[in-house]
Prior knowledge:
The chain is an alpha+beta fold. The protein contains 2 helices and 5 strands; from the N terminus they run αββββαβ. This is DRBM domain-containing protein.
Amino acid sequence: MSFTGAQGTSISSRPSWQDQLNAYCSSTKRTPPVFNIVSDRRGGRTAWSSTVTVQGLPGTVAARYWYDGQYVNNAKEDAAEVALKQLSSQPRASTVYPGQLYTQQSTGFGRGAGGF
Length: 116
């Protein structure tokens, strides 16, 4: 089964962003990326996101969005996409993932971010 994105393209026909980031790190002799899952309690629900640490990028790279719990892997995909775009000189179109809840705030994680 494949997911069809907002532009009508099939996502199963390409490697995942995590796989692409791993391949990029391997081909450029970097250490493998390290993902962290983070959560934030928002009202009666918990929102999930991810950060990734990649050799050659300062600090950690945060995913752009917060996700519902059943879509935690998409948070890692989102973070991998952002990191790969920062590492690569070729611009790529953003991907829409199912379960996106909130736009990630640049101020960081935790209670109080985004005014929720």
